[in-house]
Structures are given as C-alpha cells and as structure tokens.
Amino acid sequence: EQEEQVQTASLGQTFSLFKDGRILMFFVGILVLVGVDVGMNITFPKYLTDTFSMDVEKAGMGNSVYFFARTVGSFLGGVLLMKYAEKNFFIASVFLGFAGLVLMLAVKELWAAYAGVVLFGLGYSNLFGIIMANAIKHRPEKSNEISALLVMGISGGGVLPPLMGVITDATGTQWAALLTIAAVWLYLFWLIRRMYLRKSL
Fold this sequence. Notes:
Layout: H1 11-15, H2 21-52, H3 56-60, H4 62-80, H5 86-106, H6 110-124, H7 127-138, H8 143-151, H9 160-171, H10 174-197
C-alpha cells in the first residue's frame, strides 16, 4: 500500500494563487457568472412587469422558465460535451447566452422575451463547470485551493445586483439592468480569447 500524505492548505496559500494571472482570470469569470445569474433572477420578472404590464404573480413565473432552461441546458451539456470539443462548446454557449440577452433587449413581444431568457439559460448552464475544470487543469497540484478560491467567487452574486439597482433607479427602466448584464457578459468573450486563443498572460 502507498501511504498518502495529506497537506492542509492555509488561507495565505490559497489567496497566493491570485498571483497566477490565469487563476485570477478564472476567479473573475466565476464572479461574472454568479453576478449575472442573480441579476437575471432579480431583473427578469420586473422586466416582464414593466415591458408587458404583467401582474407580479405571472411575472414571477418568468424565473421558472429561466431555471427550466438551465436544467435542460445542464442535461444537454453533459451529453454534448462527450461528443464535441470543450472549446467549441464553451464558445457556442457564450454566444448563445449573449444572443438571448440581445433578443430580450430588442423585442416587444412576450413570446420573444421568453425565447430570449430560454436562450440565455441554455447558454449559461454549463459555463461555471467549464471554467472550474479549466482552472483545476491549469494547476492540478493545487486543486483543493483552487476549488475553495473559485467557490468564493459566488460572492459575485452580491456585487452586480446592487450596481444594477443603482442603474435602474437612475434610468427608471429594467431595460437598463438587462443592458448592464449584457455589458458584463462581454467579459466572457474576452475569456474565450484568453482560454483558447492565447495561452499565456
């Protein structure tokens, strides 16, 4: 038998990973993903209320459509990632999510707004896992520390929504909140370049 040596990582060792540009890049990616997810949950029902004059109860069902799309996307992602390259799948997912945001920003029909949030949910559903996997592949000897660090990126859910609230209050429209999500989403396009087209930082 081989004796395993278990080393406990300190907080300092974990945070020192931020010195690695790619780990920092992945961490910001998680911040963005969680931020836009929470932002969409908060914004979409209000967007339906403001744009289509829906009552609050019916508008709240918009989140159910979003979560259903994410659930379907996660299942399909598990199947498609066995057949297609991760790079192509990630790129397609980022573009699909952005297309959903653009559709929601551009349309005036309710069915199209729902179609937009479905596209966004399908595109979003597998990005977290792909970013996490790439971070661990980058430094497999630090997998525990990286996992802990990226899970801390869930705090992004408390960063973007307040900013969206300020912008919404200033403009008086939920359309501006969706536009903010779309602007933050652009980071993922930059991430495509860094992850797959340029390997060094």
